[in-house]
Amino acid sequence: MRWTGGARVLGQWLVLGALVGVVCGVASAGFLWLLDAATQLRERQGALVYALPLAGWVLGAVYAKWGGPVRGGNNLVLDTVHTGDAQVPLRMAPMVLVGTVLTHLFGGSAGREGTAVQMGGSLADWVAHRFRAGADLRRELLAAGIAGGFGSVFGTPVAGAVFGLEVVVVGRLGYEALLPALVASVVGDLVTRGLGIHHTVYPVPGVLPLTAQVLGKWLVFAVGVAAVAVVFVEGLHRLKALLERRVRWLPLRMAMGGTAVVLLWLWVGTDEYLGLGVPGIIRAFEDPALPVSAFAWKLAFTVVTLGSGFLGGEVTPLFFIGASLGNVLARVLGLPVDLGAAVGMAALFAAAANTPLALSIMAVELVGAGVLPHVMIVSTVAYLLTGHRGIYPSQRIGRRKHGGPLLERWVPLRELEAPGPHGPGDSGPGGHGSG
Question: Which of 11, 60, 120, 412 could form a disulfide with 145 if both were Cys (CB 3.0 to 4.6 A apart)?
Answer without folding.
Answer: 120
